[in-house]
Prior knowledge:
Elements: H1 2-26, E1 34-38, H2 45-61, E2 65-69, H3 76-83, E3 91-95, H4 97-101, E4 115-131, H5 139-148, E5 154-157, H6 163-175, E6 180-183, H7 187-195, E7 201-205, H8 206-214, E8 218-223, E9 248-256, H9 261-275, H10 278-287, E10 290-294, H11 299-316
Parallel strand pairs: 1-2, 1-3, 5-6, 5-7
Antiparallel strand pairs: 3-9, 4-7, 4-8, 4-9, 4-10
Amino acid sequence: MVFLKVFILLSASLLVLFNFVSPAKAQDYPTKPINIILPFAAGGGTDTIVRGITVQLEKILKTPIVIQYKTGGGGTIGWSWLSRQEPDGYTIGTYSLSFLLQQYGKAGGIKADKFDFIATVALSEGVLTVRSESPFKNFKDLVDYAKKNPEVVTVSNSGTGGVWHLLAAGAAQRAGVKFTHVPMTGGGPAALAMLGGHVTMSAGTVSEVVPFTKGGKARVIGLASEVRSPNIPEAPTLKEQGIDFEWGTPVGFIAPKGIPEKRLQILSNAMEKSFQTNEYKELMGTLGHRTLFYNYKELPQVIKVEDAKCHELLKLVGLIPE
């Protein structure tokens, strides 16, 4: 009889202990490596940002993070593959403004509503740049010339319908002028075309032109940001010159739709802590990117606004029917 009572008491204690420990284990995340899918090639702007924050993420999440490249189709191959993965928080990806633009491409099929947004961690600001020998000292000078000489000003960019094509098109629309757009195969070739005098101006990102501005070979005549960049403090914003236009590409993280909110929160919080480290902020400054953070709760509304802006500019350049 005594043995039976002891057995029952022991069983009850183990049951209580099991019920207490089990939920904690169920919420224990992550317990294995996290894969980050990059839809662009190694060495690019997105890659350097992701690698920079991954160093900090591994320390905070206490788990290995593996970067995998699935490139092609302007990012659509990687994003399409990611959308089909298990939404368990162990396979996530990156996004930039190209992600939103691809929704409207003929072959893309990428839809933002197939993903959960985790966090934004950086911003690559748009700049309009001329070579140092150019007679245009600022964007206002160039606009005055373009008004008298419609479509004579040529602007190189990284590709038709891309982020930096829309930068120049949007700035021209706000200024009431017309440029002739010259698509290239990437941001590097677009900058080289400007440096070689083959085009009047290039449209791109701060990180692409900082080496040339510091070397005295180029001059940024318009920064599409609300405030001046610490990387090129001498460069005036478009807003300072009477052009109300801001444009740049955010860089952040997404997951297949349906990731448990608890895991989404853990990832977003870890990215925010990584973002706040001095190491990460110093790296972004070195690379020419501005630090910018939105968490998973803030991002849906932010993306909605950015998507509307993308749609508007794609219509402007004739890539979406009126």
